[in-house]
Fold this protein.
Amino acid sequence: MTRLSRVIVLAAWLAPAVAVGVETVEAPGPAYLAYAGPYASSPSSAFGHLFLVLASRPDQPAPLWDVVTFNAVTFEADPIRYLTVGVLGGFLGRYSRLPFHEKAREYELLDDRDLWLVELRLTPQQRARLEASIGNTRGRWYPYDFFRRNCAWYLQEVLVAATDAVPPPSGFVGPTDVMRLVQGSVLAGSSFHRPSASGRVRALATGAREAVRHRLEREDWRALAADSAWLEGLTGPERRLAQAYFALRTLETAEALPGDTRTGLARLRLLDLDSPVEGLPPVEPAGPGIPVPPEGFHRYGRLQLAYQAAPGLPATPGRIRLGYRPAMHDQADPPVGEPGASSLELLALVVSSSIRSPAIRLDEATLFSQRALGPSDWLRSPLAWLLEAGAQRGGLFDPTALHGEVRGGLGRAVRLPGEHHIHALATLTVTGAVNHGLATAPGIEVGLAGLAHERWRYGARWERQHDVTRLSRWSERGSAFVRVDLGPALGVRLRAERGPDGDAIGVGFDWYL
Amino acid sequence: MNCNVDGAEVYLDGLRIGTTPFSGPVAKSKGTLMVQKAGYRTSNVALSTTIEPIFWGNIITGGTLGSITDFVSGAAYQYAPASYQVDLQPVGPAAAGFERKAAARKFAMLYLDRIASDLAAGHGDHLGALLAIVNGDGPAKVDASGLRSALHDSDADPVRFGNAVVAMI
C-alpha cells in the first residue's frame, strides 16, 4: 500500500458521515439504472459498469442529468499491484456525482461501449430516500475489490436504502446481476439502449450511399474531411455519419490536425445550419436512448458438460468433459453488446474422464486470457492482440502431456459483412512440460467468429507453432464450434477439435450459474 | 493550449516553455503542465500522449477520465487532437461566475457537432443544455438565435465558439 493510500485509509476511518435528512423530492425528473457494457481494456471493467442516472427536474435537458457512480481509486498502481490488490482487496472507492453528458461521452465515445438504461419507477418517498442515501456517502471511502465490493455492490446498497424491492447485496455481485434484479422487480420501467460510437457509426452508415461508405472506409479521413466539394455533396444523414466517423477517428490521432482538416470539420458543422430544415435528419435525443425490450442479461459463471468422442478410432472410449468458468466471457457467450470475437477469462478449468474407466484428468486450465479482436477495431485500432497464461493437454513436447503456456499475439482483426469477424495474429509462446523443460515457439493463429439470428454463434480457430529453441518440433491445433442459445442461461454447443493428441467431436450444454 | 487568460505562463515538468495561447512541440511523454498567472489559481494538468484506453492502468477504475485532468479545478480538457483548453480561476471577487463560464465553454467546445445539428433543426437536448448553462437560474438572456449567430460568426471553430458563448454570460 502506498503512503497516499495509507493516508486515505486513515481518512476513511476519521471522515465523519455527512448526514442528509430524508425530504420529499418535489417533482423529480426520471431516474434510471444504467449499465455500461464490458470494456476489454480494463479487467476491472470486464463485467461492465453500473451507475445511476438522475434528473433533478422533469424538464431538465438530458445532458445535464446527474450520474451517481462508485469507483475505486487506484493511483496508477502498476499492473501486478492493480490485479492482486484489485482481486484480494485493498483499494478504496467512493461515490461521485457528475454530469450525464460527461459520463455518456466517456463510455460511448472514448471507451466505445454500449449503454443500457432501465427506468426506475420510484415513488417520491423512495426517490427522497435514494437521494438521502447518496448524500450520506459524501466524504466517505469504502473498501473495494473486483468481485464483491465493487460498483454493482455499492449501487445495490443505495437502492436497498431507497426501496425494499431489491434485496441487500451478498456474495459475488456483478453489474448484470443488479440489472436483472431490478428488471425483475416492481421498480422496472421502460428499457433503453445507447449504442457505442462505433455502433452509432455502423447504424448511420446504413442510411448512406455506397459510394460515401466506400470513401469513408478506404480513404484517409483527414484528406476526406478536407475535401470541401465532397462534403458539400453529402446528404443530411451522410453528414451526420461523416461527423460521427470523424469524431471517432480523431481519437486515434495524437498530432494536431492539419489546418484544412480543421476547416473541413468546421464547414461540416455549418452545412446543416445552411440547409433547409426539411432536408435534415431527425434530431438525436441525448437521453435516455432507443426504447428496447428488457435485455436478457445472463450470469457470469458457466458450467459446461459435454460428451466427446474420437472419430476414426472406434476403440477409443468417449470422454465426459466438465468445464467451469467462474467469471468473464468467452467467444460463445459475450454479454449483450460485446463482440463475439473478443473474450476475457480468468481461472477457468476443464476436466474429463473416460466413460469406460472413470479417472478425472485435467485438460485445460486458464489462469488469464484476454483476446482483443472486437469489431470496433475496424474503426479505431488497427491492431488485434491476445495475452494468455494457462495450461492445456498436448503440445510441442508430448501429445498427451499437460503443457504450461504463456502466449502473446499481435495482428489484425477485420469485420466482414454481417456479424462476422476474422483475425490473423503472429504469436509467441513460451511453453513447458514436466520433465521436458521450456521452449520458445513463434507461430500463427487465424480465426473466425460469427453470429446469426441473434442466437446462433459459431467460430473456428487454427493455430500452429514451431519450437525454435530446441529440436525443430511443431505443434498444431484447430477447433470449430456452433452454439445455439436456448435462453439467457442455457445453450447447446457442438464442437470439433484437432489437437496434438488426435481428433475429437463433442456435444454438450452450457449452463450459466 | 488555449486558455481563458492570455499571457499565462506554461511550464512542463517545471521548465517554462511559453505563454498562453501556447503552440509548440512537447515531448511525447507523460508529464505535468502547470499554467499560472498572478491573480489566478494555478492549474496543474496531467498530460498523456494518447486518449486511447490504458490496459491495466486506468487511474479511476471503471473508466478513464480522458487524457487530461486538472486536479485543481477540473476546468482543463482536450477538445481535439493535441489541443487543450485550460480555464484559470480568478482569485477573490473576480471568481464569481467562473464555474458557469467554464462549464459553458467546455460544453460548447466538446459538443459543438451536436449543438450545430440542434441549432439547424431549431431544437434539441444539447442546445437546451447549453442554453440552460448559459442562462443559469435567472431570466433567459440568450436564446437559440443568439447561439446560431455565434456559431456562424465563429466559423464553427471550437475555441472561437467557446469564447463567444462565454462572452454571452
